[in-house]
Amino acid sequence: MRKLAQSTEETLGSIGQSIRDTHEFMQRSQKEQKKDLLSLGTILEELQKLIFRFEETSEKLNQYMQKAVNHIEQNQEEQKNILLHFFTTLQNLAIVKEELDHQAHFIDLFLREVNDYMEKYFRFNQSCPGPNCPQRRKVLEELANLATTDGERTMVNRLFKEMLGEDREALHGTLPVNHEQFISFN
Questions:
Q1: I need a surface site. Which of 1, 137, 167, 174 has the fewest CB within 10 A?
Q2: Can you give the pLDDT of all 186 residues of the chain as single tens digits?
Q3: How far apart, in whole angstroms, are the C-alpha atoms of residue 140 and residue 147?
Q4: CA pair distance 144, 135, nearest whole angstrom
Q5: How far out from the chain centre does Cα 121 lie?
């Protein structure tokens, strides 16, 4: 019986040791799991913060993109209006130019008819024929005073040469650049 008691005591001792070892292992394992769960909780919290920042940043980016799209659309609308205004102005200028061309053509026809009439009924065999006519000089000088563009000045110089035999280009020349739109303020 002693042997049985001794054997039982040894078995119980080893079972007790196994229980203590298992208990220690469980406590260590529990501490490690708590530590792992705390780490996992911290990681989850950081992940939650990152998701929140991502959503905030995405919202801000979306707002900036929308503002950029709105700005581009506004600029396109403004450019379209500017272009439309430009073409409207060009069309108006073309209409005015055509009207002025017609007026100039009418005036040219009218002056030719008046000149022919004057030559036929008043100048023919009168005291003022040719380049020494003071009326011609007066009319041409008044025309020269009205000339403001280089094209007009060239025309006046040509008329002085044809009607009075004078070369005005030496005194009143033309601009160094042949530019019809230049306006002289003299």
A1: 1
A2: 677 778 877 877 888 888 888 888 888 888 888 888 888 888 889 999 999 999 999 999 999 999 999 999 999 999 999 999 999 999 999 999 999 888 888 888 888 887 777 777 666 556 666 677 777 788 888 888 888 888 888 888 988 888 788 888 766 555 554 445 444 444
A3: 11
A4: 14
A5: 64
